[in-house]
Write a structure and sequence with these properties.
The structure is a homodimer.
Chain A: E1 3-12, E2 23-30, E3 33-39, E4 48-53, E5 58-61, E6 63-68, H1 84-99, H2 102-118, E7 121-128, H3 131-141, E8 144-151, H4 165-174, E9 183-189, H5 197-210, E10 214-218, H6 236-242, E11 250-254, H7 260-269, E12 272-275, H8 277-282, H9 290-295, E13 300-302, H10 315-330, H11 338-352, E14 370-373, H12 387-391, E15 398-403, E16 406-410, E17 413-414, H13 419-431
Parallel strand pairs in A: 1-4, 1-5, 6-7, 7-8, 8-9, 9-10, 10-11, 11-12, 12-13
Antiparallel strand pairs in A: 1-2, 2-3, 5-14, 14-15, 15-16, 16-17
Helix pairs in contact in A: 2-3, 2-13, 4-5, 10-11
Chain lengths: ~425, ~425
């Protein structure tokens, strides 16, 4: 009964956002799960294959990114300071048509996976084309992922014939036995304005039949409703409701332009929401009504969106901006607190992706996705409490990362892949883009 | 004619925000100034005391923080998620009354100086009590600073008798010959609502007589006008205008609640403005009308504010949030671009503080305040251009820092002070606060 990894002398943040008193303790990891934890006094004699003396660093659950398009790292900073439709139609869609292929998705997703792990993210929900290549990249890098194959009613990378989009997605899902155990396959219908009602219903039916998550971009801009062909309701959310799309395995991404009735529907259906505050700001889409969502007990997670609309994948920065922007949205500094966004980025994000009670807290029996945050830095001194993780910490403060009981980064060194090679490959791909 | 420091193989960002094509080159530093620069082909044989091979890292002017209360690092994260007046009256003012003393200002300003240098800031405008101790801390750490002594009509740390506040400030200024050449002394009148018209006029007269900058917090919240005793105008800015306070050596800090007429006055008087976007969000004060300021060619710089209301002093993060928030303020993603905030954080910030044409660009003859940014990181790949410094880089990406021709940080190691001792001293001081 040897422990795989034993972390000692760590300041334990067991339940982010719960307001607990932090104490120094140990965590023992075995077979991918948290086996035991407790104060240092209860450590006793515990043989371990690997022992990490945290030296007072903070140990917390890994962060959960509920929305990303990992391979879009290739387009990071390619077209900044533009309105969403201009950005999408004049820059991103043409760049995707020209440059997205299996090799690009593999290398650029791998770069994103490295970036996320190095910033403390241990679970990501990704949506893109050639999802099999993204899944392969995540597996190799050691990142847990929900990898969703994109469905859209246009000729798309890897799916030149739109009529084949559901079948191609079914094929990806049903081949999941070939994928790494860290990967959950899923379906991503692009949006109500790029998928017909029929496509939406068929893709949701596919997800239901396989009992897997279904994602869709919804209500990102104020113009969206006007772009929906064959609208069945007078808002994007009511359109989805009329089509029977909303349930607890549907993740509605963005939800910036939702009214009270939309929020009531989302709450009633127990649909999940992913908000991407930085992307919403950068594309001038707006500010999602997070406080109103939390009042209704809607389960909300944070997402970075793709690197082309952010431009980084650091959830610490996302937490910071999320909390601060909500204070302006409501003009109330108390409406959304640091603890609330810590919970969004851990426990609630895990629940959004179907990992409720398995991830997002340090508990015996939970999956061992853990990060060690170095507090011994000038910008984290003094450390009165975990609010500082939101308002001052950054991804670069993460020292070590464990995913599924395996050490994937230690002392800022990524242990799973050749980072230099990955960066060089992406730079090479970028040469033809610029 | 030996060069002091020679930086080779650097990607040169000479004029942040100007849209230049970046090229690899060298910069030679001598006697605190940029002596020569050019493409690598023109390097020739150039003996130097210290040579730094940048290996493709980006060299740019150091960042300028136009508003900080450095010693408030002691109160970082002590009281988050509160409205400004509650935060100030129930938490910060009592904590200051109990804990601010010369030793506290010295050690906590030193921590802030270390934090800023490590995040690429080379010039800060600081305003606090015991400004002589802050100046001492900045000097020792090697940070260039405008150190302003606070004036307020309450009993204040170091100035128990308010009637003495102008005299105490004059004494600090006139003893500046004892200070390090990196320090410019200045006057900081707290605000129109905590300083009487007479105190404002006397403190501005003092600054004018010594030809030094004058700072004041103005129009931070919508309630400010109602709190001004003896208001001479119907807005805080018009109050200052009526008192004859506004000129090109007056820095108006915040300016969140300013109307068109206020902006016209600021432009006409050529008064300088410092905005602190994160502080404005966190305290739910609002969003400063930056686009409207830039339209009027008002000279604006970025500030972090104190660590208690931010909670970090990283200007890269401040640039990011500033650009993104302005897109929401205007609902126009084009209104304030990445290049605009890069200029604010360098050239324009330098102009706000009286260093126009001497700092903020890499030019022959400029003061040698330079930073080297490591691009060889997953979140900065690929690097299509300097917009990424705003939307993806963080202070932790800064590899080396030169201030006034002296290397103060190299390969993330602070070369001037004992960082561990400084952090330990601040932790010790924090024990009595919590």
């Amino acid at each position: 009964m040897t422990t795989d990894i034993l972390i000692t002398n760590a300041l334990l943040l067991r339940e982010p956002g719960a307001g607990e008193e932090l104490e120094r303790g140990f965590v023992a990891v075995r077979d991918g799960r948290i086996d035991r934890l407790g104060p240092m006094a209860e450590l006793g004699d515990r043989p371990a294959a690997t022992t990490i003396d945290a030296g007072g660093a903070l140990l917390m659950p890994g962060l959960v990114n509920t929305h990303c398009h990992a391979a879009m790292t290739l387009f990071r900073g390619l077209a900044d300071d533009l309105e969403l439709t201009v950005w999408l139609n004049d820059h991103i869609f043409p760049a995707e048509a020209a440059h997205v292929n299996p090799e690009m998705v593999y290398w650029c997703s791998k770069l994103a996976a490295a970036e996320m792990i190095m910033a403390g993210t241990t679970l990501v929900a990704d949506g893109y084309f050639f999802a099999d290549q993204a899944a392969r990249a995540f597996s190799e890098t050691g990142l847990r992922a929900v990898a969703a194959q994109g469905v859209i009613d246009f000729p798309a990378p890897g799916v030149p014939e739109p009529a084949e989009n559901i079948r191609a997605t079914a094929r990806f899902i049903d081949e999941r036995q070939d994928l790494h155990p860290l990967i959950t396959p899923a379906v991503f219908a692009h949006s109500p304005y790029t998928c017909s009602p029929e496509t939406l219903q068929k893709s949701k039916a596919l997800a239901r039949s396989r009992n897997i998550p279904f994602f869709i971009h919804v209500a990102e801009t104020g113009q969206e409703q006007g772009r929906i062909a064959g609208a069945r309701g007078d808002s994007p959310v009511r359109h989805l409701e009329a089509l029977g799309i909303l349930d607890e395995q549907t993740v509605c991404v963005h939800c910036v332009w939702v009214d009270e009735e939309d929020l009531d529907i989302l709450a009633r259906r127990n649909a999940r929401v992913s908000i991407c505050p930085q992307s919403h700001l950068k594309l001038a889409s707006g500010m999602a009504p997070l406080a109103a969502m939390l009042e209704r007990s809607i389960t909300v997670g944070l997402g970075t969106d793709g690197a082309a609309s952010n431009n980084g994948l650091d959830l610490f920065r996302e937490m910071d901006i999320c909390a601060k922007v909500q204070k302006i949205k409501t003009m109330d500094p108390v409406a959304v607190r640091a603890g609330d966004v810590l919970r969004l980025a851990t426990r609630d994000g895990a629940a959004v992706l179907g990992f409720a009670d398995r991830l997002g807290a340090i508990r015996e029996g939970s999956l061992a996705d853990l990060i060690l945050v170095d507090l011994d830095r000038p910008h984290l001194q003094p450390f009165y409490g975990p609010d500082l993780l939101v308002y001052a910490a950054g991804g670069a403060d993460v020292r070590s990362v464990i995913v599924n009981g395996k050490l994937v980064m230690h002392n800022r060194q990524l242990l799973t892949i050749d980072l230099d090679e990955t960066m060089a490959r992406v730079r090479e791909l970028a040469r033809s883009v610029d």
